Amino acid sequence: MATARRVREKLGTMPGRCAAALVAAGLLLTLAGCQGDDGADRADDGQAVIVAPGRPGEKSRTLTPEQAAKAKPDDSPNAADHAYVQRMIEHHRQALTMSALAPQRAAADGVKRLADRITAAQKPEIGAMQKWLARHPAPSAGSGGHGQGHDQGHDHGAMPGMATEQQLKELTEAKGADFDRLFLKLMTAHHEGALTMAGEALAGGNNVAVEEMANEVVATQSAEIHRMRAMG
């Protein structure tokens, strides 16, 4: 029990935040030899074990360090993660192209401010997604990995909400109130398409970072859709 006492004394000297973090981690290391002779909290070979508290209503489990390491959730990117990031970069780029027209062609200050907000939000998101792809390159078509192809056979032109070349031409040529009306119409559809893509990633993806990016798109663009509908 002297070992356990030294551990408690060590925790007592830590700043409150550090000690609380150790408790909040939810995994308590039971040192071999600090229990009684029955070895209830030790592995058969006398090694230390880890007590993992169960969910509410469930009993705790004892794990070896090796089992605890394997119990960590696997958030390896899958095909849905790669497809979402690759396609959303292209999707965002079109939104930036459309928004760049507003300062010179929009009539309403509200439309100009909206275009500024879209640029301010989506440009950094493109950078974050590009960095993610650099860390998690998609397997090539012949690699046999779960990515199975650079773009999963998706046609960028077929992405939901994307404006056609003809629509972009009309927007580029429009000015004043006509531009405002067409911009709001096309950008609302564009945002709705982004929500569809984010929903697919949240339903089929596996990577935590991609989930966070998709949730950010849902939160930001849902609010902007409501704003554009009110403006229209």
Brief characterization of the structure:
Residues 148-157 have a biased composition (Basic and acidic residues). With 232 residues, this protein is mainly alpha-helical.
Protein topology:
Layout: H1 2-13, H2 16-24, E1 28-30, E2 49-52, E3 61-63, H3 65-70, H4 79-99, H5 102-105, H6 109-135, H7 165-173, H8 177-204, H9 208-231
Antiparallel strand pairs: 1-2, 2-3
Helix pairs in contact: 4-6, 4-8, 6-9, 7-8, 8-9
Domain DUF305: 81-231
Pfam families: DUF305 (PF03713)
Region (Disordered): 53-79, 137-160
Shape: elongated
- Head-to-tail CA distance between termini: 73 Å
Q: Round the mean pLDDT to the nearest integer and report it.
A: 79
**CATH fold name of the largest domain, please?**
Ferritin
Our count of helices gives 9
Q: What is the element string, with H for helices and E for strands?
A: HHEEEHHHHHHH
Uncertain stretches of 5 or more adjacent residues: 1-11, 13-41, 142-156
Query: What does the oligomeric state look like here?
Result: single chain
| Strands, count | 3
The largest sheet, given as strand count, sense and whether it forms a barrel, is: 3 strands, antiparallel
Radius of gyration, whole Å: 26 Å
CATH first level of the largest domain:
Mainly Alpha
Q: Give the structural class.
A: mainly alpha
In CATH, the architecture of the largest domain is Up-down Bundle
